[in-house]
């Protein structure tokens, strides 16, 4: 047994910052599952103090057993707290101040805050290591799925060749709903908002920013790379139309918002990290194609393990609380190693990979005016950019705006050529909107 | 940091018992991924000694850097070994002797031996805890999938309501091959043997024994139950015919060999553990239906996490080595807690649950003689046992033996009634073989 485990039979004392749905979930979990959590942690886990914006609000749980702090940062200074659980959110501001102060005071920090970890995780990890404190963020990536642990420990023996998956439940809900209903993006988003699957301001979810936060965290753990959120090449799903989903279906694919990262190692050069969040065509035989609704899923390809697939609820109070308390149990057991698997000082800076040389198939969809010569113009651009076309579909009927869709699937070829073709078509009077380009995921 | 982590910057010294395909995989992994394993483990991992039956055999790896022991048990006595890795196999015999001796000598044990853990895991765990040594067996369940860690740590905050999955790659390979080829069981098994997917004596795989070993381990971790391999209700796939797969397909299902465990808690009574390995009908929309070939997959349903799904290679040198080395890295990091998540002394003895009161839908298939009155006899038995029939399919044409298949799907109802119906039909001259009964997994 480790020193922590044998020494500590005393309760592990928790402070909770933020008592929204997830915070309430944590309180309920620690109450409902108290006995088994104690048995698995090796000692009781006790909430001693809480802080939130509104003390009086009815949350359906009794907060009176816990000390209350109006100023959340005061939780970091309490002598009776071992672990601060940050459930406030926001990459900076009060959450970051609390995290910094808690770690500076030698306390361990558990957080569900993907934006904060994506932006400041590396500095916080270095500070935590310096203090011998734990920094844990299982709940920050893919909700209840133990993917941080899966990569950091479960797949620890592997060189990860590629990590990719469905990292945003709202976007996946919208895409898979469009698949079944045939409705367009706008209407589906509106429904999702009414049903509570999308927020009033859905930007972070539908534009891929939330997925990019998570991807940058997974990439750091997978590749031993310094976190580089700003280098994520990010594109959302708002340009995906019902017609694209229909076309994809006819070709044997579904459309998913995929976050993907891998490393290009070229002899003599520093490694280059590719990080992309983009809507992709996924073959129906691929496990990600069967990931529907608000579910998340991650594929990790290890050089010895082969493909590992993890799937589960990507959000929600129960799943997120499950991940938060798993981290707390780890700390109670004495598991306080490097947050990103290797010591933070050893994380390697990587350049941003250019995807131009990547080869693969792609789906291109153009919205064009309904007039002669348009197809010739598009196919000529493809030819001139050396893009080989596997199939081309023109949706015959113009819609109310006199607009016609032309979709094509390319043969395997460099992505750079596609960019070149699109560049050649820029400014064309035939195109009524920028084309939508989606990579086709290999089986 | 724990004492182990901060104290130990010295190499962790390994002895390898068994240098077959998996042992060679471990040697290759530790060589290929040496730098990243050292970084993630916090210190180098060094093989110092090996033992196997045949010293001279060419394994494609150089064993000369390591001390050689003719007697495997001698590895446990070596003063220069911290961790013994047992890759010999067999529930008893040399593997068990080595495991006992290693732990008695205060060494940690890592094993891929599901039979040994299913039969002796609890005693070994108690001994390891007593000595402050680690006992780890990630590779014993579902190959490269980190499911032991996923349950023991990732889902640690949850009361697990049910654990189930595809735990044998050979059986799954055979069933999913039958699905695509339309061939019968015997021919498919023969092909699988020729291709190396099934062993010369495939009994443990096709009769569900191997899956039962794994299930009993997962059940102990999930439910805090004492391991009870003998209580697994076990049925193999050799009775499954091509016609069953065709019928299932027409009804919207595939057939999979499913290991499943859950706990029935009745107030005032000791909890009852249900453990079953049986071929089941799986709805095509369920993630287990998309688990094909030699792949394994496990579903854990937690009371807060909801459904967690893990999928990956169930066997093979690379995936198994990945799991073995993940355990070694854990030990290097100082993670040496209770093997079954809670202290072994706290594992609860559970009675064997009777499934008669379970309700659900079932698929029944009768092989009958081609004569009048057979259907009336079967349906009368169903009526008399209070089994409600949703659909009934008679395969019209008799085969060479004058045998006809009658398949039916029941409405939701108690399993006990089905047993009763089958009992009523026992001894009937119309039936040419015992009926095949398969549960239908709910979505």
TrEMBL record, chains A, B:
PROSITE patterns referenced in this protein's UniProt entry, alphabetically: ACT, HOMOSER_DHGENASE
Binding, L-homoserine: 199
Pathway, per record: Amino-acid biosynthesis; L-methionine biosynthesis via de novo pathway; L-homoserine from L-aspartate: step 3/3; Amino-acid biosynthesis; L-threonine biosynthesis; L-threonine from L-aspartate: step 3/5
Keywords: Amino-acid biosynthesis, Methionine biosynthesis, NADP, Oxidoreductase, Threonine biosynthesis
One GO term of the biological process aspect: threonine biosynthetic process
Record: residues binding NADPH: 114
InterPro entries xref list: ACT-like_dom_sf, ACT_dom, Asp/hSer_DH_NAD-bd, HDH, HDH_cat, HDH_CS, NAD(P)-bd_dom_sf
Active site positions: 214 (proton donor)
EC number(s) reported in the record: 1.1.1.3
Oxidoreductase as UniProt keyword: yes
Enzyme class label: oxidoreductase
Family: Belongs to the homoserine dehydrogenase family.
PANTHER family per UniProt: HOMOSERINE DEHYDROGENASE
The protein's name in its UniProt record: Homoserine dehydrogenase
Species assigned in the record: Pontixanthobacter rizhaonensis
């Amino acid at each position: 047994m480790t020193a922590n485990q044998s020494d500590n039979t005393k309760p592990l004392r928790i402070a909770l910052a933020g008592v929204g749905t997830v915070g309430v979930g944590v309180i309920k979990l620690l109450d409902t599952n108290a006995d088994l959590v104690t048995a698995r942690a090796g000692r009781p886990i006790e909430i001693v103090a809480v802080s939130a914006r509104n003390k009086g609000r009815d949350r359906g749980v009794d907060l009176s057993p816990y000390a209350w702090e109006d100023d959340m940062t005061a939780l970091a200074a309490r002598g009776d707290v071992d672990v601060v659980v940050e459930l406030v959110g926001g990459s900076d501001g009060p959450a970051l101040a609390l995290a910094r102060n808690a770690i500076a005071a030698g306390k361990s920090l558990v957080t569900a805050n993907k934006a904060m970890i994506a932006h400041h995780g590396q500095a916080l990890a270095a500070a935590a290591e310096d203090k011998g404190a734990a920094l844990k963020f299982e709940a920050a990536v893919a909700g209840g799925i133990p993917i941080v642990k899966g990569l950091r420990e479960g797949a620890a023996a592997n060189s990860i060749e590629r990590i990719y998956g469905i990292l945003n439940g709202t976007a996946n809900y919208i895409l898979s709903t469009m698949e079944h209903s045939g409705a367009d993006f706008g209407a589906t988003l509106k429904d999702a908002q009414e049903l509570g699957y999308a927020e009033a301001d859905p930007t972070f979810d539908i534009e891929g920013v939330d997925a990019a936060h998570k991807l940058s965290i997974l990439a750091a753990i997978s590749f031993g790379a310094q976190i580089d959120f700003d280098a994520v090449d990010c594109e959302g799903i708002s340009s995906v139309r019902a017609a694209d989903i229909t076309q994809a279906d006819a070709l044997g694919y579904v459309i998913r918002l995929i976050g993907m990262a891998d490393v290009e190692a070229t002899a003599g050069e520093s490694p280059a990290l590719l990080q992309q969040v983009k809507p992709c065509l996924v073959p129906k035989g691929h496990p990600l194609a069967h990931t529907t609704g608000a579910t998340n899923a991650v594929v990790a390809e290890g050089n010895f393990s082969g493909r590992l697939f993890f799937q589960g609820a990507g959000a929600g109070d129960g799943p997120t609380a499950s991940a938060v308390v798993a981290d707390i149990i780890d700390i109670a057991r004495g598991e306080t190693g490097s947050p990103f698997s290797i010591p933070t000082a050893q994380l390697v800076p990587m350049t941003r990979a250019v995807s131009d040389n990547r080869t693969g198939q792609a789906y291109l969809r153009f919205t064009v005016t309904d007039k002669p010569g348009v197809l010739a113009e598009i196919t000529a651009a493809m030819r001139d950019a050396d893009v080989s076309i596997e199939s081309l579909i023109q949706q015959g009927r113009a819609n109310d705006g006199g607009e016609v869709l032309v979709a094509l699937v390319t043969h395997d070829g460099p992505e750079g050529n596609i960019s070149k073709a699109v560049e050649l078509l820029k400014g064309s009077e035939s195109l009524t909107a920028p084309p939508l380009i989606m990579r086709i995921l290999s089986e």
